[in-house]
């Protein structure tokens, strides 16, 4: 599946977004190692803090469905923006934790413009498990 096809799937997910406060819908489509698509949309909450972005919804859903961290092929995210939408800082941190650094990230706009980058390029100098002092966690992470 190419970037444009995955962005079309993200557009489908965008329509399911729950955005009664911002009215800013975002959709994501995550491609796993078996070529299955895991959909995500942003889900808002009146308390704001519990709001979840589309990218994290797709990633958490895939993990809950049994996918292994760092086994994903690509993710696409789309919003109604002038330029291709980019993941927020929190989503970038989750992407670095759950995806391979070279995994493609397709970013699109409802106007048809899109671009491609990688997880590592989105968050240079990322804080990851290798940044922690607890040796057992680092050893487990590196062995996967």
UniProtKB/TrEMBL annotation:
Enzyme class, first EC level, given as a word: hydrolase
Cofactor: Zn(2+)
Entry keyword Hydrolase: yes
GO MF annotations in UniProt: cytidine deaminase activity
Matching CDD domains: cytidine_deaminase
Alphabetical list of InterPro entries matching this protein: APOBEC/CMP_deaminase_Zn-bd (IPR016192), CMP_dCMP_dom (IPR002125), Cyt/Deoxycyt_deaminase (IPR050202), Cyt_deam_tetra (IPR006262), Cytidine_deaminase-like (IPR016193)
Source organism, top-level taxon: Bacteria
Name of this chain's protein: Cytidine deaminase
Protein's organism: Paenibacillus apiarius
